From TrEMBL:
Keyword Metal-binding attributed: no
Name of this protein: Exosome complex component RRP41-like
Localisation per UniProt entry: Cytoplasm; Nucleus
Region (Disordered): 1-34
Lineage: Eukaryota, Viridiplantae, Streptophyta, Embryophyta, Tracheophyta
Keywords carried by this UniProt record: Cytoplasm, Exosome, Nucleus, RNA-binding, rRNA processing
Family: Belongs to the RNase PH family.
Pfam short name (any one): RNase_PH_C
Organism: Rehmannia glutinosa (Chinese foxglove)
């Protein structure tokens, strides 16, 4: 894979159910049909918008299929805690789900783990020295959980940071894939995550061609994981272009 990587493989399971469901008996690996009709290597259409929360320093809304996320950024603001430890800025991340975000039979993932993962994904892209002794707070709220929640949260949070004027080395885009038998499904929905044999998520800075985070679960062969990584990197590159276009359109839009 091209580009340098500072990523450390970690373990994270994005399945909302906590248990893998039995695969539908009428389907085999060769005739798997995705619930939303996409091809195996086709991402869901991405809708992105900045300025979703007027009271925040910056904000963004992201909608990938049925996965809907809103992120608010506050700061930089003075932080006694940051002043005690370092002359660089401090980043705080919090992820939460609305009460109606998941289906009745599902449960939301551990938000503490998601908050930690989001922090790791964003911290390397932020120029912390640009806001010394202050804190930037990122609040992500999942309005509807439709699968691939963490990649959507990360992408939306990066857009919100840019909207807040926080100095970044590059935008951060994130994409995940699921392994299902011999197939690799990109940008899986909740149902596909519940059937998956393994998952892989990559977070990267597309313009710098640098992977900042990679998480892997399940068993992967070397050829299969290489294919999955390349799929994610290519998708992140395309997503990065959409994110930059969103910022450009927001900057040129007439002010009320």
């Amino acid at each position: 894979m091209a580009g340098k990587s500072s990523a450390t493989p970690e373990t994270y399971s994005p399945s909302l159910t906590g248990q893998r469901k039995k695969r539908p008996p009428i389907l085999t690996d060769s005739d798997w049909v995705r619930p939303d009709g996409r091809s195996l290597h086709q991402c869901r259409p991405a809708f992105l918008r900045t300025g979703a929360v007027n009271s925040a320093s910056g904000s963004a809304y992201a909608e990938f299929g049925n996965t809907k996320v809103i992120v608010s950024v506050f700061g930089p603001r003075e932080s006694k805690k940051a002043m005690m430890y370092s002359d660089t800025g401090r980043l705080n991340c919090n992820v939460s789900y609305t009460a109606f975000a998941t289906r009745f039979e599902d449960r939301a993932p551990e938000t503490k783990d998601l908050s930690s993962m989001l922090h790791k994904a964003l911290e390397g892209a932020i120029i912390l020295k640009s806001f010394p002794k202050t804190t930037v707070d990122v609040f992500a709220l999942v309005l509807e959980s439709g699968g691939s929640d963490l990649p959507v949260i990360t992408t939306c949070a990066s857009l919100a940071l840019a909207d807040a004027g926080i100095m970044l080395y590059d935008m951060v885009a994130s994409v995940s894939v699921s392994s299902l038998g011999k197939n690799i499904l990109i940008d899986p929905v909740s149902e596909e995550e519940s059937y998956q044999d393994g998952s892989l998520m990559i977070t990267c800075m597309p313009s710098r061609n640098e992977v900042t985070q990679m998480t892997v679960t399940g068993d992967w062969s070397t050829p299969k994981i290489n294919e999955a990584m390349q799929l994610c990197v290519d998708a992140c590159s395309k997503l990065g272009k959409i994110m930059r276009l969103c910022l450009k359109e927001a900057a040129t839009a007439p002010q009320d």
